[in-house]
Amino acid sequence: MGNSQTGALLRVSEFYSDGAWIEGRAVDQLNEVARWPGMSAVAGFPDLHPGRYGPVGAAFLADRIYPQLIGPDIGCGMALFRLNLPRRKLKLDKAARRMGILEESSDMAARALGGTAAERLGPSGLGTLGGGNHFCEVQEVHDVADETRAASLGLSKGDLCLLVHTGSRGHGAGVFTGIEASWKQGFATGSAAGQEYLALHGAAQDWARINRAEIARRAAEALRCDVQMICDAPHNHLEIRPDGWLHRKGAAAPDAGLAPLAGSRESLSYLLTVPDGSAGALGSVSHGAGRRYDRAAMHGRIRRVKSELEAMRQTRFGGRVICEDRDLLIEEAGSAYKDAAAVLADLTGFGLASELVSLAPLLTYKTSGGRG
């Protein structure tokens, strides 16, 4: 059980050790949100870091709907896929050129919206990543911690996987900014504003899920192989529970007991096994390493010289980073993020998750330019 601070109607659980890199401002935000009207439980995870309206890497339970705790990228999440491509056949330079297909939408991707709630949002941007911390990464299974479970998923050491991190692109942002003036105290469940938000939230969440699947399909097409989903774990979304509305902001909802934990492009990522854990964790787990330094700070830590920029396009695993946006390359450098292994250690220590396999980055696709 995490450390808890209790009040008459509130429980705040902190699932990180004293040695975790947690900014004081993030903890302040966690406690501030805990005082919002109708809030009944708050959980913070070891990837906790400051956000605009509240901390990222946390889950919140309330008797009303707070759109600001979901933010503009509704439905953002990470999906892990298995590729049936032998490692020896992956030629990184050729694959890097072919992955440019992810920059453009396709008619086939648009057809995937048919008959879903996401259809009302339209196909613009579908099948593309966008900017920020979103990525599509070819990974190699580096080590296997649970051979029996891994084998049941068709995974063994040396196999190739694809990790896709993206969301609803501008669609979720349009939903959020369209209601921005009215959500300060939250929406009551039965209110007209609350019902409209729920409908749009559901559409954006479906759109984001379809988007991850379409990106994986198109990446596999570029790599000349087949792809099979292992899990899809959203981490920016709203969920109804018997005891209230669960808001996840950078906190993953496990898919069939599995969740990816993304590292940086200079560190391992992990596939986690997530048991039914502490009630204080609100059915959630960390989604990644979490930022150590914000974007502005990174520009003061890395020089904009050709040699350093080129060095950031290679990884210590012998992999490649495709990112032609120099600002984004700096802002998303490996040093911007916490140690994913330390996040995993805290999750394991609190009984929230355990390592299934570790994954090394081989080809990280960000964007060929721009931040759409």
3D architecture notes:
- The protein is α+β, with helices and mostly antiparallel strands.
- The protein is 26% helix and 27% strand.
- It has helices at residues 24-34, 92-98, 107-111, 147-152, 169-178, 192-223, 295-299, 306-311, 326-331, 340-349; strands at 3-6, 11-14, 39-49, 56-62, 77-83, 135-144, 160-166, 227-234, 236-241, 244-249, 251-252, 258-261, 269-273, 285-286, 320-323, 354-367.
- Strands 5, 6, 7, 8, 12, 13, 15 and 16 form an eight-stranded mixed beta sheet that branches.
- Helix 5 packs antiparallel against helix 6 (192-223).
- It starts with a strand and ends in a 5-residue tail after the last strand.
- The model is unreliable at 4-9 (pLDDT under 50).
List key phrases describing it.
372 residues; alpha+beta; 8-stranded mixed sheet
From the spread of the alpha carbons, the general shape counts as globular
Share of helix among residues?
A: 25-40%
Q: Approximately what portion of the residues adopt beta-strand conformation?
A: 25-35%
The overall pLDDT, averaged over residues, is 89
SS element count, helices: 10
How many strands, what sense, and barrel or not for the largest sheet? 8 strands, mixed
Helix and strand pattern: EEHEEEHHEHEHHEEEEEEEHHEHHE
Return the structural class: alpha+beta
Number of strands: 16
Query: Cα-atom Rg, whole angstroms?
Result: 20 Å
Determine the N-to-C terminus distance.
41 Å
Low-confidence stretches: 4-9
